[in-house]
Each structure stands twice: as C-alpha cells, then as structure tokens.
Amino acid sequence: MPISAAVTAIGLVVMWSSGFIGAELGTREAAADTLLMWRFLAAAAVLGGVWALLGRRRPRPRAIAEQAVIGALSQGGYLGGIVWSVGLGVPSGTAALIAALQPLAAGALAGRLLGETVSPRQWAGLAIGLGGVTLVVQGDVSAGPAAPAWAYGLPFAAMAALLAASFLERRVRAPLEPVDAIPLHCLVSAVLFTGVAVAGGHAAPPAGGGFWAAVAWTVLLSTVGGYGFYWLSLRRNGVTRTSALIYLTPPTTLVWAYAMFGDAPGWTALAGMAVCVIGVTAATVRHRPDARRARTGPRLADPEPDRTWRTPNPAEPRRTGPTARGQRPTEVTPQVKEP
To answer: Which among 32, 66, 99, 178 is most buried, taking Cβ atoms within 10 Å?
Structure first.
C-alpha cells in the first residue's frame, strides 16, 4: 500500500530531525568519527541483511557507481559535517537551522540545474534567510559558545553536500528504489568513516552503554527512517518541496533538544528562525498569476456559441426569431416539394 503524502512529510520531518539529537547523544560519549564509523557499520549490516532476505536483484554497475557518489555526498559529506560540528560544540538546533537553508539554495540553483526560472523574489528570500541564520548564530556566540567560530561553517558545507546529492539523484540514468539505494549508501559511508576513524586512532568504541544507545538511535531513526523518507519524498515530490520540508526540522529539533537536554532557545534564536521562515516562504511559495488575473482583471464573458458554417439539413426543424426567457422558440417545419 503506497504511503500517503502526509505520512511521508511527517515522517521525513520527525525522523530527519532525530539525526541532530543522535549526533549530540553520540558525541557526548565518543568522537564524531567513532560514532559515524560504528553507526554505518551497523546500518550497512542491518540493511544489507534485509536486502539479501528480500531477494533483491543486484544493481547494474552504472547504478552502483552513481549511488556510490550520491551516498558519499548525502551521508559522508552531510553527516560528517553535522556530527563534527555538534561534536565541536555547535548546538544541535543551530546546526539543524543552518543545514535547513537547503530549500533556499535549491531555489537559487534550480534555474541552472533543473531549468526552472528563478525570480527576484527567490533571491530576496535567500538573502532574508541568510539574515535569519546570522541572528541565530549571533545569539549562540553571545551566549558564550563552546565551539570555535569556524565550526559554524561545517553545517553550511554539509548542506551543500546534501543539495548536490539531491540534484545528482534527480539526474541519474539508472535510478534505484530506496530499498536498494540506502544499503549501498550505508556501505560506502561505512568504508569512508572507518578509514577516517582508523587514521585518527578513534576506531575503538567506548565501553559504556550510552554510546551503543546513540548508535541504535541513529541507525533506526536517523538512517532507516530519515533517509528512507527523504529519498521517498525526493522521488515523489521533487527537490524543492522535499527541501522545504527539511526546513521544518529546526523547530522540531528544538523541541527534541528542550525535551531531552533542557536546551531552551533564546529570543534571538527564535527571532532568527522567524526571519528564516519569511525567507523560505518568499523563496519557495509560488504565486498563481492566472488566479490573480481572474480576481483583478475584467470578467470574462460567456463563451460564444459555435458559429461554424454548416450546410442545413432539410429534415431538421428550423428555429426563427428571438426567444424570450421562459418561451419556446418557434419551430418551422421545412416544406419538402414533391417531385
């Protein structure tokens, strides 16, 4: 049974926002590369086993190559930047908000990459959204951030990587269903992050149970749920609408963070989020010129009847003279002369 659009939207927003909370849970127990290594090793094992049990057909080499690049960007680049920034002290809500500028960037790049017209209103929305993010980041900095200033650039890089993966997925020549693509993405990410963790000497996991709880959280909610709903929405709704749904993750993440960690957002952060909402609305909501013209323009007259010339049929009755409302027209029966 197909999943409805409402369920897809709600599932994407809730599950995607869980990834920022999982990053904070995991980086409290271990380094970012340690968490990412074991997260994707576990995800690749679980999803690979499910893929094998379902008896799915092996993808073609071209599809494997395409999805390997997409997986490296969407999970390696995106999650690497997000988890690393949170591990350096960037608040999870701020990281979610910066990463959620994706719809604005998608609207700005859609003209060149997807052939869509980018209006001045969309460029204005991009500028407004950037101003909102500046307010949020300024609020965190004034509150005495634990993260260095350059760490706030990591969520921007993560957003760019996910956006690039989204555009590439829309242009692939051998598309795969999410049940085939996501295990491949996880396998590529597992290889990538294992290499990073081993090179940095962080491959050994901590002994505490909190770390494995964070791994389970990120595998089930963030990877299976978040990326599953993301690629499903991307296939059904396209880049722009899916990106707009991603923008709803910051307030959801703030609710998660307040409920689990007691992190109450400040007034500056709330004001910045409101400004970002205005920017996203200006950049993504499309006006309907036809409907506006119908409301403001002159009222269209009723369509004229068909006046195409037709040769009269002698056997049909002929109507003559004007007809008043409520009266039947006068019918004149043609006289057919006898030979």
So the answer is: 99
How far apart CA 240 and CA 283 sit, in angstroms, is: 10
Phi-psi region of 329 (alpha: psi -120 to 50; beta: other; left: phi over 0): beta
Tokens of 162: 């996910």
CA distance 222 to 31: 18
Q: What is the pTM of this model?
A: 0.70
Segment 305-336, tens digit of pLDDT: 444 444 445 454 554 445 444 455 544 444 54
The type of residue at 285 is V
143 versus 52: which is more confidently predicted? 52
Residues forming a β-bridge with 12: none
Q: How far is CA 129 from CA 66, 103, 133, 137, in A?
A: 32, 10, 6, 12
Cβ neighbors of 196 (< 8 A, separation 6 or more) are: 33, 36, 37, 80
Lowest mean pLDDT among 1-10, 53-62, 175-184, 206-215: 1-10
How open is the CA angle 80-236-245, to the nearest 5 degrees? 55
| pLDDT tens-digit series, residues 34-51 | 999 999 999 999 999 999
Specify burial of residue 162 (Cβ count, 10 A radius: 0-12, 13-18, 19+): buried
CA dihedral of residues 50, 56, 57, 60 (deg, nearest 10): -50
Residue of 9, 13, 4, 24 lying closest to 257 (CA atoms): 24
- Among 14, 20, 12, which Cα is nearest to 158's? 20
Please tell me the chain's helix, strand, coil percentages from 3-state DSSP, rounded to the nearest 5. 70, 0, 30
Q: How far apart are CA 121 and CA 110, in angstroms?
A: 14
Residue 318 β-bridge partners: 332
Closest CA to 79 of 97, 103, 63, 96: 96
Give the pLDDT score at 220: 93
CB 29 within 8 A of CB 211: yes
Which residues is 331 bridged to in the sheet? 319
